[in-house]
Amino acid sequence: MVKIKASKLRDVELITDTGIRLGWVYDLSFDEETGDLLVIVAEPDEDLDTSEFVTDHEGLLLIPISAVKSIGEVIIIDSSKLAVKSKLRRLRTVKERVQSP
User: Please, what are the domains in the chain?
Assistant: First the structure.
């Protein structure tokens, strides 16, 4: 296993496996209790329409760590695992239907 320091990831470009430039690593978010890495917080590319992506209150992208395919000079993100608002809305709708009497 190759170890990478978090400080080396700052400003590394994020690109989907379909070639969409998402932005650059801004920060990392961890679970306080377990220490597990949860998401990459990214400064979005200026040409990226962020309206369908999950963002924080500052407009930074929240990329789930499970979507990372590879890390090198750039970070490749699996677009099928990328959290987008339309997927979350569908999941909530399905969950609501299942839970309603």
Answer: 6-99 (2.30.30.240)
